[in-house]
């Protein structure tokens, strides 16, 4: 078999993976119909990770039912049933599914055009309405590498006024060890769930009184402010100024920016003094007003303007998910205004900043270049020119990228940065977008060397994306064990006895005076319990002090991994300082 053919039938090939999982959904539906013929089938696509099938059953599927379905699926795989595609005219297709008693399939066919080619796939005694494609045989699927993972409620066609169905999710791989590795990763992800850790570590909370509006608790605020302090330091070094724009602005501004027409359903609005206002879903229009508030010369450019702006967007309640999907968040925006000649260097400058920030958190990334969508403004020539500049800038930096065809913003192409965490999951955080729309709409200008007025070129960019979401990402990436520079509590002093309490307080006071975040555990508990509790809190360092340490002036240093040593207080401070100042990822 040639390398090309081998790759075509490899899980590395997204099309093959999708086909494999789609076939698995049909195998699952066949297994369900064998076990419970009265179940009615809806739809069963492949998704980003695996597959699902929506079904209408007269009982609730339990974990025991899922085990029965899995066992039947394995039998179907062993039977090596051939998948055969055939087509029927619309009326025959309707009659075929009516006779089978499948009302959801009948409705799907009724929605198809009169002259549609309606295709079906048959495997053994089971036939399903489907456009395909599929594998040629159920024998291609590795039966012992299938796992049904969950069953949730789902509305037929996503409509809450329609029937409530049951959605069974599954995953499958060509090899059993790949399934085992995947399930192990899922278990690890559950332990790292930022919602669970956020509660255990006292970082944030979510309440029914404000769905989608997170509350940050004292330790969460320390983490958040430390992150923001770092953001400000980096941006100052890269030549940014910082602004703050109002959280609410009038309808006229949002009409001018285009948000009122294109984004109104996601915006919170109100009326003040008979005038419509909207709470900002994005910072950009306010940034345009700041730029246009005074004249600019070519000598002022590039002008790099950052804003940590709190924005609000109406998300459906079903889409809310911890800090990953909220209704208000702080976007670490920047708008960079420049001449056309400065564009390539500015793109490189932004990517260098991204490199620095992401490496501090140990987050490698892939770049995706999103090109001209069908619904775009500007000429094809302008788009190709701007796309070429983005390509040239990152290629000259030695970066690779993949093309995401037709997924640019309507106003310009963009670079998206997909970060990979410690479990290999990817998160789209950073983005660099070329915009020719807003400078035009807001009639932004600068005076060129020729004394004439010119339109500046503009980049939108975010590094972290949303401060809240990024905190969720790094909480899971580090499993709550944040690097020492970022940890809400960096050192916990643990006196062994009451006699060592004064020395513990002295040690803590000295660390506090040096600017480190420190707590002292004076509880009347055994030292073993104090150590275990501090490890659960994921504090980087514990200083265990007793009579011996009080007399010598030393500290018994224990890190959260259980490694311990005795050193002078000054030696510990030097070690702590080096680790915090260098923003080391690992304890040294």
Automatic annotation (TrEMBL):
Entry GO MF terms: threonine-tRNA ligase activity
| Gene3D superfamilies, A to Z | 3.30.54.20, Anticodon-binding domain (3.40.50.800), Bira Bifunctional Protein, Domain 2 (3.30.930.10), Threonyl-trna Synthetase, Chain A, domain 2 (3.30.980.10)
Q: Spell out the HAMAP family in the cross-references.
A: Thr_tRNA_synth (MF_00184)
What the entry lists under SUPFAM superfamilies is as follows: Class II aaRS ABD-related (SSF52954), Class II aaRS and biotin synthetases (SSF55681), ThrRS/AlaRS common domain (SSF55186)
Reactions accelerated catalytically: tRNA(Thr) + L-threonine + ATP = L-threonyl-tRNA(Thr) + AMP + diphosphate + H(+)
Q: Nucleotide-binding among the record's keywords?
A: yes
Q: What is this protein called?
A: Threonine--tRNA ligase
What is written in the cofactor note of this entry? Binds 1 zinc ion per subunit.
Organism superkingdom: Bacteria
Q: What class of enzyme is it?
A: ligase
The coiled-coil regions, if any, are none
Its source organism is Flavonifractor hominis
Under the heading InterPro entries, the entry gives: aa-tRNA-synt_IIb, aa-tRNA-synth_II, aa-tRNA-synth_II/BPL/LPL, Anticodon-bd, Anticodon-bd_dom_sf, Thr-tRNA-ligase_IIa, Thr/Ala-tRNA-synth_IIc_edit, ThrRS_anticodon
Which cofactors, if any, are listed as required? Zn(2+)
* Quaternary structure (record): Homodimer.
* Enzyme Commission designation: 6.1.1.3
Entry similarity comment? Belongs to the class-II aminoacyl-tRNA synthetase family.
**Cellular localization per UniProt:** Cytoplasm
Pfam families membership? HGTP_anticodon, tRNA-synt_2b, tRNA_SAD
Positions with a binding annotation for Zn(2+): 284, 335, 460
Q: Any idea which UniProt keywords this protein has?
A: Aminoacyl-tRNA synthetase, ATP-binding, Cytoplasm, Ligase, Metal-binding, Nucleotide-binding, Protein biosynthesis, RNA-binding, tRNA-binding, Zinc
Q: What's the gene?
A: thrS
Q: Where is the Aminoacyl-transfer RNA synthetases class-II family profile domain?
A: 218-483
The record's NCBIfam families line, in alphabetical order, gives: thrS
